[in-house]
Specification:
Length: 198
């Protein structure tokens, strides 16, 4: 194990959820109520979309820069999705864990699998947000922004994989029951995670 991975006093709350599950709204509510929770900003090789700000939604880098960061071991985890790469930089998370902070990470299944190999399991809480079947999520995605059939197909494949990965989760939040209920359930996850920070 990396020396930097052996000095962990904090706790990581991993959020795993399909597209359109409402995870962004749930996370935003938590950050408002718990301003001392640190949310990592992932790196991506995909192009910036209108309204996005570098360093806010993502750290936007070229494919070449991303590959260089892979080769130099800068990522704690990374994954490829729909032709683009996404990853969590060690510099985004390890210093915070060494300080004993509660860190919120929103990642894909590939990333979760990599984190499970790297971080001690007692320093992680994996939360899955459920929000109805594929047709519900597809309708939400199409209502939110223009999306190509190719990307929808890739997201459907990912949805099926993520659905099958639910048993990995420590907590499953059913967001089809209404946002207020989900806010309360996720706040409880955060409160329990605080107790695990040294």
């Amino acid at each position: 194990m990396d020396t930097e991975l052996s000095d962990i006093k904090g706790h990581v709350v991993v959020v795993m959820a399909p597209m359109g599950s409402g995870k962004g709204t749930i996370i935003a509510n938590t950050l408002k109520n718990h301003p001392d929770v640190y949310q990592t900003v992932s790196c991506t090789s995909r192009a910036m979309r209108p309204g996005e700000i570098d360093g806010h939604q993502y750290h936007f880098v070229t494919k070449e820069e991303f590959d260089h960061k892979i080769s130099t071991g800068d990522f704690l985890e990374w994954a490829e999705f729909a032709g683009n790469k996404y990853g969590t930089l060690k510099s985004e998370i390890l210093p915070k864990l060494a300080e004993g902070k509660l860190v919120l990470v929103e990642i894909e299944l590939q990333g979760v699998e990599q984190l499970l190999k790297l971080l001690p399991r007692d320093h992680m809480t994996i939360t899955y947000i459920e929000a109805g079947g594929w047709e519900v999520l597809r309708a939400r995605a199409e209502a939110r922004a223009p999306i190509s059939e190719e990307e929808l197909s890739a997201r459907h494949t990912r949805f099926l994989i993520e659905q099958s990965s639910k048993p990995m989760a420590d907590v499953i939040i059913d967001n089809s029951a209404g946002m207020e209920t989900s806010f309360k359930q996720f706040d409880h996850v955060i409160e329990e995670a605080y107790k695990k920070c040294n």
